[in-house]
Design brief:
alpha+beta, single chain, 5-stranded antiparallel β-sheet, about 130 residues, about 40% helix, Beta-Lactamase, 4 helices
């Protein structure tokens, strides 16, 4: 699959996630920290500083996701989550392709349900 085809597929999957009422942002970020697919929900006014916070969270997640010291005993990281007063931030590392799916959701979001939805959408081959 070509890179542009893969990015379109990722963009489509991010769009599916953005259809969920509680999700504010769903984006694929490459190993250099660049957003390559997805983004904020259309018509949404981001909280002041959302993009800055997402970038900071991405830096933290990137560092944490590449750490492997517990992989042998505990298994690899499935996702990392942070619950804040104004948002829930969840990151899903894709180690083989060295990208991350980053989601920002309303603070009322159930993290486990979000994770299940991501797995459902990203394992769907259609």
């Amino acid at each position: 699959m070509t890179d542009s085809t893969q990015l379109k597929l990722y963009g489509d999957k991010c769009t599916q996630l953005l259809a969920e009422s509680e999700i504010r942002f769903a984006g694929i970020v490459d190993k250099d920290g660049q957003l390559v697919a997805g983004g904020f929900k259309e018509g949404l006014v981001p909280h002041e500083g959302d993009e800055t916070r997402l970038q900071s969270f991405l830096e933290f997640v990137s560092k944490a996701s590449i750490r492997k010291e517990y992989d042998e005993s505990l298994g690899p990281i499935n996702y990392l989550a942070a619950r804040r007063d104004k948002a829930v931030l969840v990151s899903f590392p894709f180690p083989i392709t060295q990208i991350l799916l980053l989601i920002s959701a309303e603070p009322t979001a159930n993290i486990e349900n979000l994770a299940k939805k991501v797995v459902e959408i990203f394992t769907d081959v259609n």
